[in-house]
Write a structure and sequence with these properties.
Layout: H1 2-10, H2 15-52, H3 57-106, H4 109-113, H5 117-159, H6 161-208, H7 210-215, H8 219-272, H9 277-310, H10 312-318, E1 340-348, E2 354-363, E3 368-372, H11 379-386, E4 394-399, E5 402-403, H12 409-414, E6 416-419, H13 430-434, H14 442-451, H15 455-460, H16 478-492, E7 496-500, H17 508-522, E8 526-530, E9 542-547, E10 550-555, H18 557-561, H19 566-584
Parallel strand pairs: 3-8, 3-9, 6-7, 7-8
Antiparallel strand pairs: 1-2, 1-4, 4-5, 9-10
Length: 588
């Protein structure tokens, strides 16, 4: 029940709505019992008039009218409480989504490196749905059922104690059977949720990589994988269903036995004259009303267990330590003469060996530096540390002489523009992608597009700047997507620029167009380039060579090319490959 307590605790900002609902439900529960009580007096008045001709028509009319008014008031209050309940559900959904999204935005990059986005979204949806269902159940069923049960037993005890005891005995029997039923259900639900998270995550991955799936003819494989998971889910559900219906049979059996005992007592006492016909009608109505909270009880306990298991991952994510505060205030004024220093920096990911080992280098203002090395050498890790996606496990990083540990994430990233290797675009318009994170007017956008060599193709799009680019820019070519990213970086106008393999996936013509745009972007900036194509780093000031997490060389391209080492080897491989290609086609 620990997650239920968390649900109650997390809903504290909405307690005022819960209080209003509780009062309305309490009044409604009382009003629903007025009609059965009045029916006793109506029947007794009718019987008295039939047997002794002393019945009072005014009394009868008053009782019938009072019963109608009570029912009408109950209907009005129920309608109002249902409307407030819907309002509460909407507020709760908004509150929980914001709570979850706020947490996700403050989690470290390491969390997203190890999780599937589809899985996170599924956990969010399931958590919110299960919590919302529980709160709706609490307001619409738990409180009414509890109050009706208490009032019903009290009124029954006033007229006949044995019947009240029999009725009361139903509740613990039902609760025990329902409890064990829902516990078994909940254990299976956790298993089912785990499989469902994997399946939803995989489906999202397949949709995102549909071209890959189709090109490798793996549709059948992917279909079978999900089909097998769904089969496993159905097997678990079958066990849940079997256990539920077995317990439900025993719940129904206990109800029938107790109702038989109650009917025997009621009809016998009415037959012997110990109970009036009005009292008999009242008792039968109250017992019938008591069945409603009983039937609701198994539903209530099922919802409680569903909320317990369904919100498990939701609260696990909320309990993760936040590493960033996206709402913090920071100095938005960009620094001038940016300088980056790594002093004995080491880093290792969770449960892994050191990726970087005592790294030292300095990149001066206006300098252009390239990070070169074999795949897995640690180039991308250095960039992640510069962006403060991660913190070093040892050593210090300095920005213009100030230690990174004393600088906020937002301040650091405000001073860095990044052009990704992958085309990081949203599925919205060209305009929204270019101005993402930037404030710019039409003139500034056009100027950025010109500098990025992108204005010409943007004008040819169906709606120009307002054309939608599709998911991850699928409607644009690779070179076009990169130039949109470059225009975005131009608008940001940060003193530090990071190019992460920005031209690695482009053809020669597109690379030339993008390279020209990059020249405009790099002007008067501290530039860090990760590149495997050495044609993109011909004009850098220095090359930092990384091997197995260590800096093994650092000098100008000319110096490194003239001495043995990793850089010259890599350069030789590329030159040799190009030479053979030229010879093959007899181009010299």
């Amino acid at each position: 029940m620990k997650n239920i307590l968390k649900i109650i605790k997390i809903s504290r900002p909405l307690y005022h709505l819960v209080a209003i609902l509780t009062v309305l439900i309490l009044v409604s529960a009382v009003l629903e019992l007025i009609a059965p009580v009045l029916s006793k007096f109506i029947v007794d008045t009718i019987v008295l008039n039939l047997s002794e001709k002393t019945g009072n028509y005014s009394t009868l009319a008053f009782l019938i009218g009072a019963s109608f008014v009570a029912s009408l008031l109950s209907l009005v209050i129920t309608t109002i409480s249902d409307r407030i309940g819907d309002h509460f559900a909407g507020r709760l959904r908004k509150f929980l989504t914001e709570k979850f999204y706020d947490k996700v935005l403050t989690l470290p990059q390491s969390y997203f490196d190890s999780e599937i986005s589809g899985k996170i979204v599924n956990q969010l949806n399931r958590g919110i749905q299960s919590i919302q269902d529980f709160m709706n159940t609490a307001s619409n069923f738990i409180l009414p059922a509890l109050l009706q049960s208490i009032f019903t037993v009290i009124i029954l005890a006033y007229y006949n104690i044995p019947i009240a005891i029999f009725t009361f005995a139903l509740f613990p029997i039902y609760m025990v059977l329902s409890y064990y039923s829902t516990v078994k259900w909940g254990k299976e639900e956790v298993k089912k949720n785990a499989i469902e998270d994997v399946s939803r995550g995989r489906i999202q991955e397949v949709i995102s990589n549909m071209a890959l799936v189709k090109s490798f003819n793996t549709e059948i494989r992917e279909f079978r994988l999900i089909a097998e998971n769904l089969t496993s889910i159905n097997k678990i559900y079958a066990r849940q269903s079997r256990n539920y219906h077995i317990f439900d049979f025993f719940r129904g059996l206990s109800l029938n036995i107790v109702l038989l005992l109650i009917n025997i007592v009621v009809f016998y006492n009415a037959f012997t004259g110990s109970l009036t016909l009005g009292s008999m009608v009242l008792i039968l109505q109250l017992v019938a009303q008591a069945r409603r909270p009983l039937f609701a009880m198994s539903f209530i306990l099922a919802r409680i267990q569903q909320a317990e298991s369904g919100s498990k991952e939701f609260f696990e994510i909320l309990s993760l330590p936040s590493k960033e505060n996206f709402d913090e205030k920071y100095d938005e004024k960009k620094i001038k003469e940016a300088k980056i220093e790594f002093n004995n920096v080491s880093f290792s990911y969770e449960k892994s060996e050191k990726v970087l080992k005592n790294v030292n280098f300095t990149i001066l203002p206006g300098e252009k530096a390239a990070l070169v090395g074999h795949s897995g050498a640690g180039k991308s890790t250095i960039v992640n540390l510069i962006l403060k996606f991660y913190d070093p496990t040892a050593g210090n990083i300095l920005l213009k002489g100030k230690n990174y540990s004393g600088l906020s994430h937002k301040f650091i990233r405000n001073n860095i523009a990044l052009v990704f290797q992958e085309n990081e675009l949203f599925s919205s318009t060209v305009r929204e992608n270019i101005t993402y994170g930037n404030k710019a007017n039409e003139k500034e956008i056009i100027e950025a597009l010109k500098l990025a060599n992108a204005l010409e193709f943007v004008k040819k799009l169906p709606k120009g700047l307002d054309s939608e680019v599709g998911e991850r820019g699928v409607r644009l070519s690779g070179g076009q997507k990169q130039r949109i990213q470059i225009a975005r970086a131009i608008l940001k106008n940060s003193p530090i620029l990071i190019l992460d393999e920005a031209t690695s996936s482009l053809d020669a013509k597109s690379e030339k167009e993008v390279q020209d745009a990059l020249e405009n972007l790099m002007e008067k900036k501290l530039v860090i380039i990760i590149a495997h194509r050495f044609s993109t780093i011909q004009n850098v000031n220095k090359i930092i060579v990384i091997d197995e997490g260590k800096i093994v060389d650092c000098a100008s391209p000319q110096k490194l090319a003239s001495k043995p080492g990793i850089y010259r080897d890599l350069l030789h491989y590329q030159v040799e490959g190009n030479r053979k290609l030229l010879e093959k086609f007899e181009i010299y």
